[in-house]
Structure formats: structure tokens, C-alpha cells
Design goal:
Number of strands: 0
CATH topology: Arp2/3 complex 21 kDa subunit ARPC3
CATH architecture: Orthogonal Bundle
Order of helices and strands: HHHHHH
Shape: globular
Oligomer: single chain
Helix content: over 70%
Number of helices: 6
Strand content: under 5%
Distance between the termini: 29 Å
Largest sheet: none
């Protein structure tokens, strides 16, 4: 049942991304799949963070179209793993910390996307460093607003049972 709810969350985020991006101009600075990836990565499971990031990123690549299929998938997979690994080592349960993680993840995602596009010799959405910084900050602001709303909703769908316990690896 948990896997079904996670998959439904990813599909709903992708559908809302399609609908809102066409209706609202400011929604070009919001990536709901990134917010979903951050939420599930903060549950201290690197494999879950990677799978959610990969699925959400590839879905976003398919929706966005273009010739860089897989770049967002790789970017969100990497971020999902890094955030989940960090949440094992550090306590990232507090709401303000989760918002901070989303801001850092949004900026890192934008920079990683542009770097991967340059590496693959594809044209990213910007070429100048000043414009890239401006877009990264706008995306961070948009993702922060989205995470405040989505984290409240997702916390109700995926309730924590008395706080998150640290999942230890079998070899530690």
C-alpha cells in the first residue's frame, strides 16, 4: 500500500506540473517532482530516495520533452540519494530544516541540470551566469513555496509514528 501511495504521489505531482505550468506563468519556476523527491528522501531511505528521484525525474523529462531525456532523471536520482544519506547522518526532521533542504536541493538541481546539459553539449535554458543565478533563485523561491504546501499535505498522507527512527545499515 505504501508503494502505491508513493507512486500515486509522483503521478499527481507530474499531472499538477502539466496543468499548472500551462495556466500560470510563475509555475515555470516550480518543480513539484523535486519537492516530492525531497520529501521521500528525508525519510532516511537512500534506495527509496533514488527510486522516487529517478521516477519523478524521468517523468518530468518526458513531460518537458526536448532532446535531453534522462538529465532531470539523473539529477533527481543523485539528489534523492544525497539527501537520504544526509538524513541518516543528521536530524532533518524539523519543518524549518526540511524547507532549508528544499532550497539547497532546488539550487543544486538547477546547477546540476545546466552542468549536465553543457557536458552533453545540449543547450540549457540559459547561457549567462547572471541569468543562471537569477533563475536558480527564482526556482528556489518557487520550490520553497510549493514545499510548504506539499509537505503539509504529504505529512497527512504519510504520517510519522512518533518521530523518525534512524535506519541503520546492516553492516554498521
Amino acid at each position: 500500500m505504501q508503494t502505491f501511495k508513493i507512486a500515486a504521489s509522483i503521478v499527481i505531482a507530474l499531472l499538477l506540473q502539466i496543468l499548472f505550468a500551462k495556466r500560470f506563468a510563475f509555475f515555470q519556476y516550480v518543480e513539484l517532482p523535486l519537492v516530492i523527491t525531497v520529501f521521500f528522501s528525508l525519510q532516511r531511505s537512500p534506495v527509496q530516495g533514488m527510486i522516487v528521484g529517478m521516477t519523478a525525474g524521468l517523468g518530468l523529462d518526458i513531460i518537458a520533452g526536448g532532446d535531453t531525456l534522462g538529465v532531470r532523471g539523473f539529477s533527481l536520482t543523485l539528489l534523492g540519494y544525497v539527501i537520504a544519506s544526509g538524513s541518516i547522518r543528521f536530524s532533518l526532521e524539523k519543518k524549518l530544516v526540511r524547507v532549508g533542504v528544499t532550497v539547497v536541493a532546488s539550487i543544486a538541481n538547477t546547477m546540476l541540470y545546466v552542468a549536465l546539459c553543457k557536458l552533453l553539449e545540449k543547450s540549457p535554458f540559459t547561457s549567462s551566469p547572471d541569468e543562471l543565478l537569477k533563475i536558480a533563485l527564482y526556482k528556489a523561491l518557487g520550490d520553497t513555496v510549493a514545499c510548504i504546501v506539499l509537505f503539509v499535505l504529504l505529512d497527512r498522507v504519510f504520517p510519522h509514528t512518533g518521530g523518525m527512527t534512524i535506519k541503520r545499515r546492516f553492516y554498521e
